[in-house]
Design goal:
Helix 2 links the parallel strand 2 and strand 3. The longest helix has 23 residues. This protein has 237 residues and is an alpha/beta fold. The strands form 2 sheets. The protein has a 5-stranded parallel β-sheet, with helices on both faces. A 4-stranded antiparallel β-sheet has the order 1-6-5-4. The C terminus is likely disordered. It is globular and about 50 Å long. The protein is built from 7 helices and 9 strands; from the N terminus they run E-H-E-H-E-E-E-E-H-H-E-H-E-H-E-H.
Length: 237
């Protein structure tokens, strides 16, 4: 379904009120991962409000894992692949061939989206490095998955960092995509897996776009909350 991974250089139509509600519903299905050396990684931007609720409920640290969809030339909303940290690129070769996309066009899109990936990493992390994922239980969260190509790319990149367990967790996922991704992770947790998916936004009452500022504010809040917990622990509270 997802084509090949390459190394590059460089229930109801409204199951959730909003992403906060979706995150709380999702968190209730992830309780078994509390205290398992867990870190929650969100696919920005929409995955961050969902992941924030999951991280709070599981008392786990929160961070973002930036992945960028590769849009078809002239049709940027049509995904033909994705790029992820560590030089991972996933391509939908069937669609690329069907559209007659040339290697030069593909490389141009890849270069542009890799640059945007790096910009967003800097924007969301400031001076913070990406936390180590080695030997951790990584819960990868998005607000919903249609084709799943960006999640697939993220999973490949995360696996290279040596986690103990990879869990993919989303409020809503197309049934075909859930089946395709299940073999790529140790566990996949979804609140809804409709056969007739439509689009992610159809499953939310409020699906307004999450802004960069909202992402940074939620990350700041999550880091402050974990920092306060560590201080209380050090003080014996």
């Amino acid at each position: 379904m997802f084509g090949d991974t390459y190394r590059t250089m460089g229930a109801s139509a409204h199951a959730f009120r909003n992403r906060t509600d979706a995150g709380r519903q999702l968190a209730s299905k992830l309780e078994q991962y509390r205290g398992k050396n867990t870190i929650v990684l969100a696919l920005p931007r929409g995955g961050v409000p969902v992941a924030y609720e999951v991280a709070r409920e599981l008392d786990a640290p929160l961070d973002v894992f930036v992945v960028r969809k590769l849009g078809a030339p002239g049709q940027p909303e049509l995904g033909i692949g994705a790029v992820a940290p560590g030089g991972v690129r996933v391509l939908d070769m069937e669609t690329i061939r069907a559209l007659g996309i040339t290697e030069a066009q593909l490389e141009r899109v890849t270069t542009e989206e890799t640059a945007e990936l790096e910009r967003r990493f800097r924007e969301f992390h400031d001076d913070r490095p990406m936390p180590s994922l080695r030997d951790k239980t990584v819960i990868l969260v998005d607000d919903g998955l249609a084709t799943g190509v960006t999640a697939y790319a993220a999973i490949q990149a995360i696996r290279e960092q040596g986690p103990k367990v990879i869990v993919l967790a989303v409020p809503v996922c197309a049934l075909q995509t859930e089946r395709a991704l299940a073999s790529q992770v140790d566990d996949i947790v979804c609140v809804e897996t409709p056969a007739n998916f439509g689009a992610v936004g159809l499953w939310y009452d409020n699906f307004q776009q999450t802004t960069d500022q909202e992402v940074k504010e939620l990350l700041r809040r999550a880091h402050e909350e974990k920092g306060q917990e560590r201080k209380m622990g050090d003080a014996g509270v």
